[in-house]
Amino acid sequence: MSTNPTLSADWYINSEIYAHERQSVFGDSWVHVGYDSDIPKIGDVLSESVAEVEIEVVRTQSGVLVASALLGLMNREVILVDSFRGMIFVALDTSNCSLIEWLDQFPTALVDLPLEKLVFHSRTIRRVKCNWKTYADNFLEGYHVPSVHPEMARDADASNYSVNLGDDRRWNVHVMPPRGDSVFGMFGWLYPTFAFNVVPGGWAVERWLPRGHNEIDLFFEYFFQSEAPDIDRIHAMNETVAEEDVRICEAVQRNLESGVYSEGLLSPKWEEPLLVFHDMIRELGEISGYAPTSK
Question: C-alpha 256: how far from its chain's center?
Answer without folding.
Answer: 21
